Amino acid sequence: MESVLRSVIVPCRNAKLGCTENIPYGRDSNHEKKYCRFSLCSCPEIKECNYTGLYNEILFHYLVSHLLKPDCFFTFGEPRNVRMAINDKNLVLMTLPKTLLFVVQCFREPNGVYVALNSLAPLGPEVEKFSYRISYYFDGGTCSHKLPEMKRILEVSYQTPQDKNFMFVSNSLLCGEVLEMELCISEIK
Ligand SMILES: [Zn+2]
Ligand SMILES: [Zn+2]
């Protein structure tokens, strides 16, 4: 009986939203958890807003529902300065040719600040890929972090990243509560 069930395939739970993938019944499916392009993403203002939507629709929600920061728009491939208060936690960036949201986050730890940049999207192969470089300038030097493929997340987390996808700025390099950074996001063709 069990082996019969194991061989049964069922539609992805996002079939109603348009997914045509089939997955093995009863098994944890990576497709449903991470890869399905119909997975719902949570609005990055997760503390005050409980909207969830498709990765390519969440930008429209954000534009009409949240206060935009004056410099939230960027152009692919062009370095730009970003000012972010460490306590702000989230800085949402967008670029209109793509209906996607990018989120810069700061995490304060006893030894310094971790800065991460992710795009809000599932891991599915249909979703566009981006690379980025982020730099923090201080008196006499630069901290930089480059990632050939930006991480994608379905919702922002307030847990300090456990992987290597962040820039670390140690306490001795901080000057005040605001980070002046340079950011460049590029499309991977
Ligand atoms: Zn699916
Ligand atoms: Zn929202």
Automatic annotation (TrEMBL):
<dbReference type="Pfam" id="PF21361">
    <property type="entry name" value="Sina_ZnF"/>
</dbReference>
<protein>
    <recommendedName>
        <fullName>SIAH-type domain-containing protein</fullName>
    </recommendedName>
</protein>
<feature type="domain" description="SIAH-type">
    <location>
        <begin position="7"/>
        <end position="67"/>
    </location>
</feature>
<dbReference type="GO" id="GO:0008270">
    <property type="term" value="F:zinc ion binding"/>
</dbReference>
<keyword id="KW-0479">Metal-binding</keyword>
<dbReference type="InterPro" id="IPR013083">
    <property type="entry name" value="Znf_RING/FYVE/PHD"/>
</dbReference>
<dbReference type="InterPro" id="IPR044286">
    <property type="entry name" value="SINL_plant"/>
</dbReference>
<keyword id="KW-0863">Zinc-finger</keyword>
<dbReference type="GO" id="GO:0016567">
    <property type="term" value="P:protein ubiquitination"/>
</dbReference>
<comment type="function">
    <text>E3 ubiquitin-protein ligase that mediates ubiquitination and subsequent proteasomal degradation of target proteins. E3 ubiquitin ligases accept ubiquitin from an E2 ubiquitin-conjugating enzyme in the form of a thioester and then directly transfers the ubiquitin to targeted substrates. It probably triggers the ubiquitin-mediated degradation of different substrates.</text>
</comment>
<keyword id="KW-0862">Zinc</keyword>
<dbReference type="InterPro" id="IPR013010">
    <property type="entry name" value="Znf_SIAH"/>
</dbReference>
